[in-house]
Q: What sequence folds into this?
């Protein structure tokens, strides 16, 4: 019982801050860590960062309250009646909506704060770059001295001038949201599970190719080159899903400053930056925040060969963030190694489930390109990240009794650092030399 699947209509430039964007709330999938994470950011400080991440999360928080009120007042339009499990879960979620002192959230005050935030005219990001007229999408037209940024703008203007379609931009709150989309073995029900409007294709594919039936002889390869080059090594007729080592509070991280981390490299060599801005301006009402235990998923970005603009490859992109152990980002870092591992496993399970849910077909012709996320400037230990990947790849998920890696035929770990791939290769499961049907 999520929010009603309303049609997502792009918001006009002049009305962007005045028209609230419809937020899908996967009510049945909400967990206490997800709710507490949002509350922690939205109530710890009302000072907005450069991309209004706090305002975006406050918008999500208010949408949760609105959804709960629909159930509590029996005015939910998604279903005529709410079953007992949803009613009980609604009560549980309501109990989680408290300040650190356990007092209930002051919703009237939070709405006033949100309304004040939407009327704020000062744009610190635009000011930082010397932009006076900070209209939506000013990031695509502001002056830049960087050729990589200019080149990616050329790609965007050529192939994505009108932006990405609503159904190509997906947001997920946690792994539970993906798990709840999956049919169970033996379930013949024709009832469609609650889902975000952008997931209509996902629902259809999961029913046609349920995860419990996927049992491929997976090949795990280690590719020592940049992600922008590796995509061109994938067979031409295959689907590509790329893991973007994303910044959780800034679309593209240091893209506008010409940083050179993995996310920025992806965006300099593709039209993917437009997708992140569409997430910001269309799905997040002019702000940007990747949920702590969730991610975004973008269909059909286009990678370009820097040496031949006519050579390009379509790929889907997982937009997922790791903790920055060398500093602070949007969310508080875990306090103990055990908490860090637990949270990372939740993050990794979410992007792995997202990749499985969004395969075209049964995953046999999908290449999943992963890598040592968070082990660069963010300071995560390479062995720790490899161990998280190992555990997740060996987990049964999405109503399958087999390790989730068997949902794919090809998984690549891509890195420009050979030594990181060497560590990964020692820790991760081996490719299957025998037919997976025997497992």
A:
């Amino acid at each position: 019982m999520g929010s009603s699947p309303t049609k997502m209509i792009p918001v006009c430039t002049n009305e962007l801050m005045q028209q609230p964007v419809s937020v899908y709330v996967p009510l049945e999938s909400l967990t206490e860590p997800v709710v507490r994470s949002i509350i922690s950011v939205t109530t710890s400080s009302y000072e907005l960062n450069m991309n209004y991440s706090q305002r975006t999360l406050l918008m999500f928080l208010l949408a949760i309250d609105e959804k709960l009120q629909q159930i509590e007042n029996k005015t939910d339009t998604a279903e005529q009646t709410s079953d007992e499990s949803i009613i009980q879960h609604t009560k549980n979620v309501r109990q989680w909506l408290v300040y650190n002192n356990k007092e209930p959230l002051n919703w009237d005050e939070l709405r006033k704060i949100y309304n004040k935030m939407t009327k704020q005219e000062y744009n610190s990001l635009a000011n930082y770059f010397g932009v006076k007229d900070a209209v939506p999408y000013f990031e695509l037209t502001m002056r830049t001295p960087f050729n990589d940024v200019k080149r990616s703008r050329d790609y965007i203007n050529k192939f994505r001038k009108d932006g990405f379609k609503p159904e190509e931009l997906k947001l997920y709150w946690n792994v539970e949201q993906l798990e709840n989309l999956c049919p169970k073995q033996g379930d013949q029900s024709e009832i469609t599970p609650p889902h975000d409007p952008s997931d209509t294709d996902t629902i259809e594919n999961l029913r046609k190719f349920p995860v419990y039936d996927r049992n491929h002889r997976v090949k795990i390869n280690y590719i020592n080159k940049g992600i922008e080059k590796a995509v061109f090594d994938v067979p031409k007729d295959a689907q590509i899903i790329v893991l973007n080592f994303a910044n959780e509070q800034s679309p593209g991280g240091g893209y506008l400053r010409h940083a050179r981390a993995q996310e920025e490299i992806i965006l300099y060599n593709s039209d993917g930056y437009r997708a992140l801005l569409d997430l910001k301006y269309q799905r997040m009402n002019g702000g940007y925040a990747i949920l702590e235990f969730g991610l975004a998923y973008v269909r059909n970005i286009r990678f370009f060969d820097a040496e031949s603009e006519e050579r390009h490859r379509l790929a889907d992109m997982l937009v997922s963030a790791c903790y920055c152990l060398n500093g602070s980002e949007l969310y508080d870092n875990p306090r103990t190694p055990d908490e860090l591992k637990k949270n990372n496993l939740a993050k990794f399970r979410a992007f792995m489930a997202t990749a499985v849910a969004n395969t075209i077909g049964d995953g046999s012709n999908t290449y999943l390109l992963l890598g040592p996320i968070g082990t660069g400037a963010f300071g995560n230990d390479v062995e720790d990240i490899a161990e998280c990947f190992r555990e997740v790849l060996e987990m049964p998920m999405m109503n399958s009794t087999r390790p989730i890696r068997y949902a794919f035929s090809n998984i690549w770990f891509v890195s420009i650092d050979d030594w990181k791939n060497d560590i990964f290769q020692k820790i991760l499961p081996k490719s299957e030399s025998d037919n997976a049907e025997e497992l």
About this structure: The first strand starts at residue 169 and ends at 172. The chain is about 35% helix and 10% strand. The domain at 131-438 is CATH 3.40.220.10 (Leucine Aminopeptidase, subunit E; domain 1). The chain has a mean pLDDT of 92.
